[in-house]
Amino acid sequence: xxxxxxxxxxxxxxxxxxxxxxxxxxxxxxxxxxxxxxxxxxxxxxxxxxxxxxxxxxxxxxxxxxxxxxxxxxxxxxxxxxxxxxxxxxxxxxxxxxxxxxxxxxxxxxxxxxxxxxxxxxxxxxxxxxxxxxxxxxxxxxxxxxxxxxxxxxxxxxxxxxxxxxxxxxxxxxxxxxxxxxxxxxxxxxxxxxxxxxxxxxxxxxxxxxxxxxxxxxxxxxxxxxxxxxxxxxxxxxxxxxxxxxxxxxxxxxxxxxxxxxxxxxxxxxxxxxxxxxxxxxxxxxxxxxxxxxxxxxxxxxxxxx
Amino acid sequence: xxxxxxxxxxxxxxxxxxxxxxxxxxxxxxxxxxxxxxxxxxxxxxxxxxxxxxxxxxxxxxxxxxxxxxxxxxxxxxxxxxxxxxxxxxxxxxxxxxxxxxxxxxxxxxxxxxxxxxxxxxxxxxxxxxxxxxxxxxxxxxxxxxxxxxxxxxxxxxxxxxxxxxxxxxxxxxxxxxxxxxxxxxxxxxxxxxxxxxxxxxxxxxxxxxxxxxxxxxxxxxxxxxxxxxxxxxxxxxxxxxxxxxxxxxxxxxxxxxxxxxxxxxxxxxxxxxxxxxxxxxxxxxxxxxxxxxxxxxxxxxxxxxxxxxxxxxxxxxxxxx
Lengths: 306, 322
Hints:
The complex is a heterodimer of chains A (306) and B (322). With 306 residues, chain A is mainly alpha-helical. In chain A, 73% of the residues lie in helices and 0% in strands. Chain B folds into two domains: 4-59, no CATH class; 87-321, MetI-like fold. Chain B is built from 14 helices and four strands.
């Protein structure tokens, strides 16, 4: 996977600068030194957060933060986790992220199916409308959206507040409306690569369009769904802005947005802030490390379409 | 418009609407299904994204206390006149957004491209290098803010501790996030930490998709590494280049979370004004002025649309021609 080009290029014609065994060694070594320095440098902020979070406040207060540690422990993590009610905020994140990702994929696949498998005249306009919507900065729409959310009622079983404002349902809604654009873009490119003969065969057999969608196209899009689900889970989990503005009750906020409130209220020293921030990262880091291939795949299907 | 399904073309790219040897009229049930399929997401998009975007433009011509609809009245261009001439944070915000964009385009973006080019070879530990540089992209921008906060903290942060400038009584005490001449650059470094990996991974994917025979041909013609990159690889990667330009521009306009966190959770620190923060402060801040907020949002909308339209035209040109 690293590079397929090198093996295809005959040695004699390999472009200058390509690493070759034997002769190119000093050059390759320089590159490794450079990349190692950059990579290690890149990890310093995270390493520093980890180092800070593993030390007790009394230790850092006495010896300074940049000093040899006198005992490392996970105490800050357990304090941050228990005292601030982080499990509750993680639960809020889950309640928002899972439905938002599933609905986004469902809706986006519907739109993508519509624009890529049929030749309606307004399809390109539709595709552009969705893609452009996803690219707009969130702040462009926030003033009217905030007012709209304050006015739009919701039945009480969906929202404790009775409105879109300050409800998980409202946050899910805006995520779905916003993220659909990106997924439509990716999925419609993906669906275009599915040969039309497949739909043709289904039509000849008399299958209605809904069966084409659910039984033929959706199952074939599984790799794209895997990539998008990974990417969207991380993005939606990482969202800070929507729940900061569109939720009033701190207790309802997902963990990423709640962190801002917690940092003033419970996380009173850098050690605890570091622990809290790192705890918040854990789900995304786990998803990324386990599903790395899908994550990068999702980003690059979206970007490298030609 | 006849609703028909093209079932014969090989795929959408070469299935021009005009050449449709065999089309099939959809049944009533199919039409209902397709309407629902497109209707729900379209309604959500229009109601929650495009309607508010248009409403921003409309509200920008009004004065409104933000409470009842009856208090809205038309003031024409007054809000614009006010933010341009009588709203101190506006021009600094514009300047900072421009600096943000220029810095992102000139530092982390080329750095990401350079790293991608270095990694696009058969080298050992490539996965480790990629992961290390890419990890910040996976983190929430808000969390990135918190991580850099404990680096920039003037008393306890890594930077001042390492430089020995963490003594408040000392001569060289540096308040990285408080000093209005420094804080924007401090935030930009944190932002670059994330952006570089993003560009790197996108460019790396693009480089891998370049036909190897192009490099081979360039090598046979005697091009050196730099020439091959500038004259062969870069032009071959036009779609990726466009995507990277769009991401760079849009991320600069969208920047919010990191600045909000690093400016102490209120988003109005001198030196760190950004359009996105001013809009938010005028929506939910202490003294909200929806008219101002919307006028600012309209400015941001116009700039964003310029970038978005460029991207869309570039991207869909091929399809429109079909």
